[in-house]
Amino acid sequence: MNDLKTSIKLAEEALSISKENGDKRSIGQSLSHLSLFHMIIGDFDLSVNIANEAIENFTEIGDKKGIADAKYTIAGVLYKTDDYNLGLTYLLDCLKTYKKLNDYHNQARVEKSMGTIYEYFGDTSSAIKIYNSAIESGVKADDLNLQSNAFNPLSGIYLNQGKVQEAKELIEKSIAFKNETGDTRGLAFALYGRGKIYTVTGEFDKAESDFLEAEKIHQEMGEKLGLAMCYHKRGFLYIKMNRLDEARDILVKALAYSNKYRIILIKFKANLLLHEIAKKEGNLELALKYLQQYIDEKESVINDRTAKVIKSYDDINKMQQLEREAEIQKEKADIIEKKKIELDSFFYRISHDLKGPITSMMSLNYLAKYEVKDPTGLKFIGEYEKQATRLNNILDGLLNLTKMSFNEDTKQEIDFEKVIYDCIASYKFLANYELVEFKIHVDQHIKYEAEWTLINTIIQNLIENGVKYARTEKNKPFIDISVRDESDKIVIECADNGIGMDQDTVEKIFTMFFRVNRKIEGTGLGLHILKRAIERLDGDVQVKSKLGEGTTFRITLPL
Description:
The structure is a single chain. The chain has 559 residues and is an alpha+beta fold. Among the domains are: 308-404; 412-558, Histidine kinase-like ATPase, C-terminal domain (Heat Shock Protein 90), CATH 3.30.565. 72% of the residues lie in helices and 8% in strands. The protein has 21 helices and 7 strands. A hairpin with a 3-residue loop joins strand 4 and strand 5. The chain starts with a helix and ends with a strand. It is an enzyme of class 2 (transferase). Keywords: ATP-binding, Kinase, Nucleotide-binding, Phosphoprotein, TPR repeat, Transferase, Two-component regulatory system. Pfam families: HATPase_c, TPR_12, TPR_MalT.
């Protein structure tokens, strides 16, 4: 695919011959190749139309691999623009087919693309795993290009994690493979990856050379996404080199290019860098304009992305459920359905309670740190940033929780005291917080391993409800939290002297969307999620409450 114009011409000739012969399989294969080539050069609408025509031909003759090949191209169009969730759905469908056929070549291609989407979602852990799986599939297929295709993004992740030497070794290996196989288009992505490393190490001339060489190849190949990526990173490089005029020119070009080809992620990143340039030049009005565009664009992307993450992981669950219903007993299908409900609950909480505030907090904090000079103000900004970071970490944990619904994940030893204090600190913003006395009792030397996110979710919801429903008008509100090791189980108790509940209400509190008091802000999801988390740990929860006197939650978790 190094000469895409020639490839398109040959595919069109093959299509014409196939139609003359009435060969449905050959027609479908020619259409599938044409669709792929048009996707690479950015003719996205045409690519999807041709791919759908290919699917029609393959469906008529029952060619499942052909259908998967065409769907793979559609997925490429979707995730390279702005429809990651549907792209992931298509890729999962392809992967299922390729696994059944033991087609390691195409498994590697799909897994590499899935890694890209996981990176868009901010799910780095899943991205690393799927990239390594793509490398393994490439080894099984005995294909150096497939292996090196996954080296490139994996190197980028290592670079972001500060593992510069590992990133460099991997990208150099990729470049060596690309030169060995003659994959010019793939070489451009590898050079781009090395240019990023040179930028970080301060070898700016080498970085510029790599970016320019990569751009040249992408232009010759008609590769739209790769070219936009290079424009953006070269703009970043020029800012580092203080070549602001050149940086502005290339970033304006990146912005226009991204608008034309719907490359959303590059679009908002370019706005942020243009903001930095205007700020350096003292043009605060223009800086504010670009920053606002960045905030608006990113907030739109993140809010949209959150919804798409919800739908994508829900699609994964639905697809696995349908597949298993035909192969396993009904009780196992019921477990999958339970996981579906659990995923919906956790992600609903993310979209409504976390992602919006995180977006605003992170964006506004960026501007405030540079504009505020007062020490007291900076102190508050630091606390602001600390809590925003904590929220972001919780979100990442919940995303990992979704992954754990389908795969075994690493457990860790729980420091209950730290979890409790961190959760308490995170609710300083609640109205009753300053009035509540917290009493904490944790047995020393407790040894308990579990998924941190589940324990954090349990403690957090107990504290949130205790603070929200505190009685502030008659007595000193308190929340008494204890964690005990009772030989074969861990017991968590949370008692308060809040508004309490009658027995009828107690029986309903774990129902999704049920709210004890409509006058108090909430989603009606907290205790439902708490119960799901406890069930995931094979635990149990009991509630005792008396209206006007308070409530006690007793949670037992087996060791």
